[in-house]
Design a protein that fits this description.
- Helices cover 42% and strands 15% of the residues.
- It contains 27 helices and 20 strands.
- Strands 1, 2, 3, 4, 5, 8, 9, 10, 11, 12, 13, 14, 15 and 16 form a 14-stranded mixed beta sheet that branches. A four-stranded parallel beta sheet has the order 19-18-17-20, sandwiched between helices.
- A hairpin with a 2-residue loop joins β13 (261-264) and β14 (267-271).
- α10 (348-367) packs across α19 (579-593), α15 (478-492) packs across α17 and α19 (579-593) packs antiparallel against α20 (597-603).
Length: 767
């Protein structure tokens, strides 16, 4: 029996992947979470633990990576992990920045007991979208041989070989660590997505276990791509593949969405949660390495390429370690690889709610704020922001009642609720009741009505606040807006009026109308910050409130917002989510959380309620967003995808839409394309002041970090629009059988419609 146990121990191994809620530059907190994950992995019997990318300093340090302190403190954290025995009888794979020679590298460090076996630098840097790794790090060439790395003083004081001798140097480069019973290598985040991914070389070289420590942020409908790549990698090359990721807001617009994975030969063995308020989550799986080796030899294509892989063997260096890491004798001996499980995916509606909700929770507890303040208009956008905060409160209540200590501790600190309220059984009724008490303590909503507001939106905002449990107020903004108008009248002797007040639509009347709408919107922003500062005092509480915005990605793209209105806030959880996805989320939340007012809100036409209200049979406001914009939200979503994701200018967009929109004539499509780009160019400057928003969509127009483009455009687009007109004139009309093609305005007519916006400033009335 003992011989059989030794034989099984040589082929069976338990591995651990982790989610860590790290925070950029929070070295003490990051160290404690990393240490806790190592202890949990060891307690579960794991002999290999993989951590996220740059876990000791936090992935989102950005230009702080250029500071010598960041790399130095990361080394000090690694040394402290070794002193605390984090890698005792377990191979630990940890991420941190390391300077080698004259360059800084994004590295994985393999440690066992107190010995550093290998430092593996990243070879393919992420430099697209939100990522700027090439700004801070150098990429290690894959064909560069291993080099000797002299350990800095912070590590020399603690690093020891297994025989007790002091360690002074270690290998640095593209390599893998081979113990007696298994071989392990690293593939770092972006490298998985490259055409010649390192897992191919490692698989052909016989590496049994591959660990991907990642810093991957949440994006709607992205998780399946990530998982598919890893499943296919091991199905094609064989092997055990671990994926560890950060999870949470580490100080910026991104939410890292965890979902640690363990995969073997194309089958999923373990999956951690994507959205959670836990700081540390560890998943483990037992694997029989003979199954990996048998799988590879059973596929002739792998065997043939492995036999002829001189190039791969030359590039990948194997570091020998004369140690066996077998399951602990006290643990039950696994007999075979864990059974596969099904991949779990959240629906897009759940992603829209849960990702921003967890992001807001991290921001709230880490910023020191007492809560959030939201101008709640009764429309779909502000209702979406309110719903997300409501989901945040429900999740906080759920984790509290289930005894998650870090969440319970934060809830008690922020809300000052009676601890007895947080110790009840975790039933649905108790969860709903506690979430409403949390919401009443941290979530403040306010309906800012005016003479132009409808009774319907006032009713809906109050009802939704009651559904969630928020502390709600109703105020009037007329006195503030009227005071601004009165000051203009006093100085100039003129009083501006709305267009529908005199029936005129000249350029000067349009300017008056727009100014009167904007002064209302900007008054709401001023009042929002005023109330956010004073409401804690009024409620005999300490601290301050963070103001939440509620502008969606489509309106930001089109520029359909007032600069410095109530969409200007501290944070915007929906700023990169489309109107279409938000409406779907509202339906989901109405059914899932019982916020029934959302059904009424989502069925109402979107309106800004900034003009005087005309007579309406249903009590809804006559001003609607889509009529004001001259395009639907569905069309805006298509424009956004084509502009950003498919990199289309006016001409490319016109060509694409002629093939897609068969219900419209080419002339009508040309009109819509030109209308979009005219207003996009006019309003692009507004993107420079957009509220920091949760990043959720690939076509976000966030000028500061993601969508890097100019903000001063020639909005006539002379060359491009001439080409668009040529395409429209030369495209054969293909109408559906019912003859439903619509004819659009010609280019000249459309230009005349825009002439107020296109005139130089000297010819326009200044407001």
């Amino acid at each position: 029996r003992s011989r059989k146990r030794r034989r099984n121990s040589a082929t069976m191994i338990r591995v651990a992947a982790v989610n860590l809620n790290q925070w950029a530059l929070d070295f003490e907190g990051n160290f404690q979470r990393s240490l806790q994950s190592c202890r949990l992995a060891r307690a579960a019997g794991a002999r290999y633990r993989l951590g996220p990318e740059l876990e000791l300093c936090g992935y989102g340090c950005e230009d702080h990576f250029l500071e010598a302190d960041t790399a130095q403190h990361s080394l000090e954290s690694l040394a402290r992990l070794l002193r605390e025995g984090a890698a005792e009888e377990m191979l630990v794979d940890v991420g941190l920045p390391i300077r080698h020679g004259a360059a800084l590298y994004n590295c994985r460090v393999f440690v066992l007991d107190k010995e550093i076996l290998l430092i593996r630098p990243k070879m393919a840097l992420a430099d697209n979208g939100n990522y700027r790794e090439g700004r801070y790090f150098a990429a290690w060439p894959s064909d560069r041989p291993l080099e000797e790395f002299v350990l800095p003083e912070a590590l020399r004081s603690v690093c020891r070989f297994s025989d007790g001798r002091a360690q002074r140097v270690c290998p640095f480069g593209f390599g893998a660590v081979k113990l007696r019973n298994f071989c392990v290598g690293a593939e770092i985040c972006e490298e998985l997505w490259t055409p010649a991914a390192p897992h191919i070389d490692m698989g052909l070289a016989g590496v049994d276990v591959m660990g991907n420590g990642s810093g991957s942020h949440h994006q709607l409908r992205k998780l399946n791509e990530r998982i598919d790549l890893m499943l296919m990698a091991t199905k094609r090359c064989g092997g055990v593949y671990l994926y560890s990721n950060s999870r949470g807001c580490d100080g910026g617009r991104l939410y890292f969405d965890g979902c640690a994975l363990i995969i073997c030969n194309g089958k999923l063995l373990a999956q951690a949660s994507q959205f959670s308020m836990r700081d540390v989550e560890v998943v483990t799986a037992s694997v029989n390495l003979e199954e990996v080796r048998s799988y590879r030899t059973s596929l002739p294509c792998i065997s043939r390429q492995a036999a002829n892989s001189d190039k791969q063997r030359a590039a990948l260096r194997i570091i020998e370690c004369d140690r066996t890491l077998a399951p602990p004798s006290s643990a039950p001996e696994p007999l075979a690889t864990d059974p596969p499980i099904e991949v779990y995916m959240h629906s897009p509606e759940e992603e829209c709610a849960m990702g921003p909700a967890c992001w807001l929770w991290d921001y709230l507890r880490r910023s020191g704020a007492a809560g959030y303040f939201l101008p709640l208009s009764g429309g779909a956008d502000s209702a979406s922001t309110a719903t997300i905060v409501g989901v945040m409160c429900r999740l906080a209540a759920r984790y509290t009642l289930h005894g998650v200590e870090e969440v319970k501790r934060d809830v008690e600190r922020i809300t000052k609720l009676d601890p007895a309220e947080m110790s009840k059984p975790p039933t649905v009724e108790n969860e709903v009741a506690l979430s409403k008490k949390i919401a009443n303590a941290v979530f403040h909503t306010c309906y800012m009505g005016s003479d132009n507001s409808s009774a319907a939106t006032n009713h809906r905002s109050k009802a939704l606040a009651e559904d969630i449990g928020a502390y709600h107020l109703t105020i009037r903004i007329d006195d503030v807006a009227s005071a601004v108008v009165a000051s203009f009248t006093e100085v100039t002797g003129n009083t501006p009026v709305f267009m529908n007040g005199n029936g005129s639509s000249s350029a000067t009347d349009k300017a008056q109308d727009l100014a009167l709408q904007n002064v209302q919107a900007r008054s709401r922003m001023v009042l929002a910050y005023f109330y956010a500062q004073l409401l804690p005092w009024q409620r005999k509480r300490s601290g301050f409130l963070l103001v939440l915005g509620s502008g969606n990605v489509d309106e930001a793209l089109r520029g359909y917002l007032t600069k410095y209105d109530c969409s200007s806030a501290d944070l915007n959880p929906i700023g990169a989510i489309s109107k279409v996805d938000l409406k779907r989320m509202l339906y989901w939340a109405a059914n899932h959380y019982g916020y029934k007012t959302l059904l009424e809100i989502v069925s109402a036409p979107p309106t800004a309620e900034l003009r005087p209200m005309e007579k309406s049979e249903n009590g809804e406001h006559s001003q609607t967003d889509e009529a004001d914009m001259g395009m639907t939200y569905d069309e805006l979503g298509v424009f956004g995808v084509l502009r950003k994701i498919h990199r289309c200018g006016p001409v490319s967009m016109m060509k694409a839409l002629v093939r897609q929109w068969h219900h419209l004539s080419p002339a009508s499509i040309a009109e819509k394309v030109k209308r979009f780009f005219v207003y996009y160019g006019i309003n692009r400057h507004k993107s420079c002041t957009l509220t920091p928003a949760y990043h959720a969509e690939q076509y976000s127009p966030d000028d500061n970090r993601f969508d890097l483009r100019q903000f001063l455009y020639n909005v006539k687009w002379d060359w491009q629009f001439a080409k668009v007109d040529e395409i429209a004139a030369g495209t054969k009309q293909e109408c559906p059988p019912d003859g439903g093609c619509k004819r659009g305005k010609g280019a000249d007519e459309l230009t005349r419609e825009f002439e107020d916006e296109l005139e130089p400033p000297s010819k326009k009335q200044r407001t």
